[in-house]
Design a protein that fits this description.
By secondary structure, this protein is α+β, with helices and mostly antiparallel strands. It is built from 12 helices and 18 strands. The chain has a 5-stranded mixed sheet with strand order 2-1-9-5-6. The chain has a 5-stranded mixed sheet with strand order 11-18-17-13-14, with no helix packed on it. A 4-stranded antiparallel sheet has the order 3-4-7-8. Helix 3 packs across helix 5, helix 5 runs antiparallel to helix 6 and helix 7 runs antiparallel to helix 8. The longest helix is centred in the first third of the chain and has 36 residues.
Length: 560
């Protein structure tokens, strides 16, 4: 006796018994796939509509941006610490997984318990619409891609589910006829061949529909992605830009700024290795021909400049190390570059801020904001720049092209606005910035820090022919400058390291120390810095939130 004809408990019908067989019910395997195919169609259409409405209105991106906006600081720190600059990719993948699970559930529900699959899609769409219309740079049209996409997804799901239910019914009917069971509403003499033929037709109808839905979704979605690849066109525009030479002295990196130590961080960070931490899930695409910067707020005269006008101004070059407030002790969310730009103090002087203003709220093209003390931006001794160049080339797209802010001595979340389009002169008492509303401090001066690059934590080292081991790394105290670095082994005495040359107090410095005659076994190395004012780096351990991490970087190594 086959598995589908085994007798069931008293009172159960042959239909109920057959539904437990693997071959009798195609919906068991095809309903989840139907949900996924319908979701693919929904997202493909949504991406196509987003081409017209605006690239930022893509459902996945607006939901992801909403998640970023609402995560608590501790979760942001965890994501950055765990995934580093891949945090956005992980977030997008997480959203895709959640949506895929919702699609599977919708396919099963719509096939087995209609219309609950439709209800689930409507609920998912409502979340997408809410996320779209609450973005700071959104219009009501931003809801359109989600609405149209969900509408198409529901149509595909309901149509496919109806065909799948028909296939399921005919498959069970054919199984019943093979076992001699009666099928309600059908003449008992209906031959098995007729039922098999009906099952084949229903199967073909569903599979053709599901296959066409999937293929069409992939084609439409792929086309939308190709058409939305504005970054490639913008890259060509960027590559064609020729930056003017600085009006003042060009930055000259001393030969002694880069120590000849394998594994040490280079003094100037290459653009493609520079850390990127921001809230933009998709890099804003700002055409320099369309870019405008407005200086508004508590000013005597509002100012607006174009990219061409900015390039015509007397630009200066300055080397500045940037640091992310999320950087852990010993972390790598810090980098040094040579920047070309126009002094922000000169631009603000044209606007003539009011005497009671104390803050500039800078706004990015995607709506992100930062609060920077006005006194810092107008300080004649600090090269705060409206930057257009990074390491002698136009800003990379991911680092703020065409224009960004670079402010020495402040963490990026209160100063380094990328894709900047507005400077609002205001007061801390009247305005708050993006991260200031999420538990982070308002002003964010960078804390002095130092890091051991060589040897790496957990490394096994062997002394050289002279019995020495080289220890090296970088230290920074932006806008104050590093005057000294010390290293100690285990709980021994602090010993001075040798400092490399540097361009200015606004950049980090490499350092090296010779560990003479280390004993075999496990050891702990620690480093601390001293700034130009004689302040010694604190040993107090603090997490990044709310105003930056602190403490000494230590590494455990083994001497063989």
């Amino acid at each position: 006796m086959s598995p589908t004809t085994e007798p069931g408990p008293p009172g159960t019908s042959g239909r109920a018994q057959h539904e437990t067989g693997r071959g009798a019910d195609p919906s068991r395997w095809w309903a989840p796939l139907l949900g996924v195919a319908s979701a693919l169609g929904a997202f493909a259409v949504a991406e196509l509509v987003a081409l017209v409405v605006g690239s930022g209105s893509s459902p996945v991106l607006v939901v992801g941006a909403g998640v970023v906006d609402r995560v608590p600081p501790w979760l942001k720190d965890f994501a950055v610490e765990t995934f580093g600059t891949a945090d956005k990719t992980v977030l997008i993948l997480g959203i895709v997984v959640v949506l895929a699970l919702a699609a599977v559930a919708a396919g099963i529900l719509e096939t087995r318990r209609p219309p609950w699959g439709t209800v689930l899609l409507v609920a998912v769409g409502a979340v997408g619409v809410a996320a779209a219309v609450t973005r700071p740079d959104a219009t009501t049209l931003w809801a359109l891609p989600t609405v149209v996409g969900v509408g198409v997804g529901i149509m595909l799901l309901r149509t496919g589910a109806a065909r799948l239910r028909a296939w399921r019914s005919s498959a069970l009917a054919a199984e019943d006829r093979a076992t001699g069971s009666a099928v309600p509403g059908e003449a008992p003499e209906t031959p098995l061949s007729a039922r098999r033929e009906r099952e084949a037709l229903d199967r073909r109808s569903f599979l053709v529909f599901a296959g066409l839905t999937t293929v069409t979704a992939l084609v439409v979605g792929g086309t939308a992605r190709v058409l939305s690849a504005g970054s490639r066109a913008l890259t060509a525009v960027r590559d064609a830009i020729r930056l003017p030479a600085p009006t003042g002295p060009a930055v000259v990196v001393p030969a002694g700024a880069d120590l000849d130590v394998p594994g040490i961080t280079p003094y100037v960070t290459p653009n493609d290795e520079f850390y990127r931490i921001d809230t933009a899930l998709r890099v804003p695409e700002v055409d320099p021909d369309d870019w405008r910067l407005r200086v508004v707020g508590l000013v005597e005269e509002e100012v607006e400049i174009s990219f061409a006008e900015l390039l015509a101004l007397p630009l200066v070059e300055h080397a500045t190390t940037l640091t992310c407030v999320s950087n852990e002790v010993g972390g790598d969310l810090v980098g040094n570059a040579v920047w070309l730009g126009y002094p922000l103090r000169d631009l603000l002087a044209r606007a003539r801020p009011h005497a009671d203003a104390d803050m500039v709220l800078s706004r990015s093209a995607d709506g992100w904001t930062a609060s920077t003390p006005l006194e810092v931006l107008t300080d004649p001794g600090r090269e705060s720049l409206l930057a257009v160049g990074m390491n002698r080339e136009p800003l990379p797209l991911a680092h703020g092209f065409p224009v960004r802010m670079v402010v020495p001595g402040l963490y990026g979340y209160v100063s380094a606005t990328k894709w900047v389009v507005e400077l609002k002169v205001t007061r801390f008492a009247d305005d708050v910035a993006y991260w200031s509303t999420r538990g982070w401090s308002e002003r964010g001066p960078i804390k002095m820090s130092s890091r051991i690059d060589v040897p790496r934590a957990g490394a096994t080292v062997s002394p050289d022919a002279a019995g020495d081991v080289v220890v090296a790394g970088v230290a920074w105290s932006q806008h104050s400058g590093v005057a000294g670095v010390e290293v100690r082994v285990d709980e021994g005495e602090w010993e001075p390291a040798e400092l490399a040359e540097t361009v200015s107090a606004d950049t980090w410095r490499q350092w090296t120390w010779t560990w003479s005659g280390p004993g075999a076994g496990e050891h702990r190395l620690a480093v601390r810095a001293t700034d130009a004012d004689g302040t010694v780096q604190t040993s107090t351990q603090a997490p990044p939130a709310p105003d930056g991490s602190s403490g000494w970087d230590t590494v455990e190594v083994r001497v063989a």
